[in-house]
């Protein structure tokens, strides 16, 4: 089927636009003027863009879609300003949704830095005020630290003698009593006390999350849902959505494995299934976790935290196991992407990547997810090795207020280095890490361009030398994210022969005031020539 799109400001690449395009069988077959495309369209359906800006389909390079979908059904703790408010919100949620909390409660989103007075972490005594009858696990917004009630400790038999798992911690008070606070690998352990959702419920939360993603202008998602801590996803429910035609947008798995044998098994079984043979659902990289988060002070640092002397963060994955997993992935032809936030985690991961690349294939595009705390030498090394960077500029909205306290002013100047890494030639894709941040791409682009928080602070931007222009940010969200998944020759551009994935915007992203970019809406979202979202106003 043919369809023409006319009367638009269609972004092709930096400095290049056209008016119209022609789609046939899900592929862009021609770009040009209204007259050219109109003549080719003949009697085919025509969509009038009404002068609006049309850009390539937006592609979130890293998120956790299952967790984001679950967050739409769970109690919202993101705006809680005290522990008392967390308790109150959870009690109210249990009263309004007894069927969801009959066997347990899980949520994510609190942030102690937003508490108005006492900024301590919630603990078992606090959560026991919600209930002592069901297991309750409440994760910080980053997902790298959680609070539980006493029921969780009872179920797992955790007491004063219980050792912390490798790559995680059981926090204790001065007497040695477990506080019901867990970090990193221990989070996944305690999460298992809350029963998983039934299959159909998991499929429904994925559908809701995909609907929301489409409404934000996203046409592709690269998501870590299987095997990851803090995730509710599985292969079967996601695969069924695509097999049954219920999924609207493209999806690439980022899969966490704990052993080399697990990697071999998944490559031999899951990856070979027919469901992964097209452009809609693909089996992607191995996703590893090297450290934690800056907000939780679990990111692995070379120097101790300035506001927590003696704490260097948490190494969630040992060097030996990380190297074993990376080597096995490379042998299986898998890309590896690794969660790294602290400078020591980045350094250690680059050491392993460089060693693995020297041993064999150099074309697997291994990547760094987040890559926040860096000095200039690390930036140069990343670019020299051609390691792909999966950035989340929106993290800076909050982190600009804590990074100097955590790491010092000198290191802050070379961190969140969006412009420097781009200038050095490192391949970069943008994403949100949802549900850590909202899936909406436009606040993310706005943050990269302005380096200001939602209130417009600071004037001129936080270390403004690292601001990027709109084309750079948009390209990172489209062509850059496509490169992250080896699809830069099929999507990420409005170009003849490319998949007909594009987004029509409510405002001209290239001409409006930069601070207004965060308010842009998707008027239409198109995947493979099919409209998957249309705003009621258009």
TrEMBL record:
GO terms for molecular function: hydrolase activity, acting on carbon-nitrogen (but not peptide) bonds. SUPFAM superfamilies: Composite domain of metallo-dependent hydrolases (SSF51338), Metallo-dependent hydrolases (SSF51556). Residues 46-533 form the Amidohydrolase domain. This is Amidohydrolase. It comes from Aminithiophilus ramosus.
């Amino acid at each position: 089927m043919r369809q023409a799109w006319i009367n638009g400001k269609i972004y092709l690449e930096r400095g290049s636009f056209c008016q119209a395009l022609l789609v046939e069988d899900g592929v862009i077959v021609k770009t040009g003027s209204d007259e050219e495309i109109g003549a080719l369209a003949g009697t085919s359906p025509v969509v009038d863009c009404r002068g609006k800006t049309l850009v390539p389909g937006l592609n979130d390079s890293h998120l956790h879609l299952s967790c984001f979908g679950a967050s739409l059904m769970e109690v919202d703790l993101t705006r809680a300003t005290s522990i008392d408010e967390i308790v109150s919100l959870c009690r109210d949620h249990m009263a309004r949704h007894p069927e969801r909390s009959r066997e347990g409660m899980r949520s994510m989103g609190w942030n102690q830095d937003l508490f108005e007075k006492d900024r301590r972490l919630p603990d078992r005594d606090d959560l026991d005020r919600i209930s002592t009858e069901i297991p309750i696990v409440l994760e910080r917004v980053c997902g790298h630290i959680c609070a539980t009630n006493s029921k969780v400790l009872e179920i797992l038999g955790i007491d004063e003698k219980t050792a912390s798992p490798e790559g995680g911690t059981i926090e204790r008070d001065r007497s040695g009593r477990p506080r019901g606070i867990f970090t990193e690998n221990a989070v996944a352990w305690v999460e298992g006390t809350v029963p998983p959702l039934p299959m159909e419920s998991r499929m429904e939360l994925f559908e809701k999350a995909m609907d929301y993603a489409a409404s934000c202008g996203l046409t592709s998602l690269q998501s870590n849902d299987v095997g990851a801590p803090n995730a509710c996803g599985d292969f079967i429910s996601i695969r069924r959505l695509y097999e049954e035609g219920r999924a609207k947008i493209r999806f690439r798995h980022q899969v966490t494995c704990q052993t080399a044998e697990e990697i071999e098994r998944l490559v031999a079984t899951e990856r070979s299934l027919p469901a992964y043979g097209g452009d809609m659902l693909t089996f992607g990289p191995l996703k590893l976790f090297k450290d934690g988060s800056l907000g939780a002070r679990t990111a692995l640092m070379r120097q101790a935290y300035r506001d927590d002397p003696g704490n260097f963060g948490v190494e969630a994955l040992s060097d030996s196991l990380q190297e074993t997993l990376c080597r096995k992935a490379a042998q299986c032809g898998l890309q590896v992407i690794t969660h790294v936030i602290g400078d020591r985690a980045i350094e250690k991961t680059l050491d392993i990547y460089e060693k693995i690349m020297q041993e064999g294939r150099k074309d697997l595009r291994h990547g760094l997810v987040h890559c926040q705390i860096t000095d200039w030498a690390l930036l140069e090394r990343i670019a020299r090795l051609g390691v792909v960077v999966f950035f989340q500029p929106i993290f800076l909205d909050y982190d600009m207020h804590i990074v100097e306290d955590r790491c010092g002013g000198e290191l802050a100047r070379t961190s969140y280095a969006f412009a420097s890494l781009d200038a050095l030639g490192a391949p970069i894709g943008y994403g949100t890490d949802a549900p850590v941040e909202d899936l909406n791409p436009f606040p993310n682009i706005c943050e990269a361009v302005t380096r200001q928080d939602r209130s417009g602070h600071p004037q001129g931007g936080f270390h403004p030398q690292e601001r990027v222009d709109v084309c750079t940010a948009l390209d990172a969200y489209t062509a850059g994210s496509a490169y992250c998944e080896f699809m830069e020759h099929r999507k990420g551009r409005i170009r003849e022969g490319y998949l007909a994935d594009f987004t029509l915007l409510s405002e001209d992203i290239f001409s409006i005031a930069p601070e207004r970019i965060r308010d842009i809406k998707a008027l239409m979202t198109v995947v493979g020539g099919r409209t998957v979202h249309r705003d009621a106003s258009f």
